[in-house]
Amino acid sequence: MARISRDPDDTPIAQKILAAAIRQFGKAGFEASLQDIAKDAGVTAAGVYYHYTDKRELLFRCLEWMASSLYEACKPAESIPEPDRALKFFVSTYIIYQVRQFAQIAPMYASLVHGTRHQQHRLSAKQQKALRELEHRTLDLLRKIIQSGRTQRSFKIDNPKLAAFAIIGMAEHTLNWVDPAGELDVTSIAKHYAELALRLVGASEKA
């Protein structure tokens, strides 16, 4: 593996390139040029190729980071024994994390990570499969929470998987309209959506 260079601030050059790619893909989608990414990162085009094979790998690494980091943020929900509290934590964290972390790259996130995936053909079959597996980890985590609530009779829901898809879709949509700097507080919005999720799964009133 090639040695990762560092800048005076001790930030790995590969990481700076990835951050620049996220910004540029957010602005222009896959049409963002390697030249623009290199300029944003403060390196040469040759510097980009030193760390990444091509633009497709850069795109994949961006999406991989987004999917993985979102999952890791929500993962603590699985250690919460009460299904209602676990569901609240998952939904609130999902919304707060994606809005605060992904707001600047919403166009890329909406078109490539969620929704129609109409540009994922830009990735290789292997890369697409890897992303699906990452996405499914988050979905499965939510499904297990709902299934646990169903088993404990805390939730009145017939199809946990379908409910998980509905809640994920509801939470994803906030990225399209919530402004982290707007009048509506993100934390309050997340709390409200968590309550909506509880109603969707038929949680008991005590929840």
Description:
This protein folds into two domains: 10-52, Homeodomain-like (Arc Repressor Mutant, subunit A, Orthogonal Bundle), CATH 1.10.10.60; 60-200, Orthogonal Bundle (Tetracycline Repressor, domain 2), CATH 1.10.357. It starts with 12 loop residues before the first helix and ends in a 7-residue tail after the last helix. By secondary structure, the protein is mostly helical. 67% of the residues lie in helices and 0% in strands.
Percent helix among the residues? 55-70%
Total helices: the number is 9
CATH hierarchy class name of the largest domain = Mainly Alpha
Number of domains: 2
Shape: elongated
| CATH A-level architecture of the largest domain | Orthogonal Bundle
- Mean of pLDDT: 86
Instruction: Report the sheet-strand fraction.
Output: under 5%
**What is the CATH topology classification name of the largest domain?**
Tetracycline Repressor, domain 2
Distance between the termini: 51 Å
What name goes with the CATH superfamily of the largest domain? Tetracycline Repressor, domain 2
Order of helices and strands: HHHHHHHHH
Uncertain runs are 1-5
Secondary-structure content class: mainly alpha
Question: What are its keywords?
Answer:
Tetracycline Repressor, domain 2; disordered N terminus; 207 residues; 2 domains; 9 helices; Arc Repressor Mutant, subunit A; elongated; mainly alpha
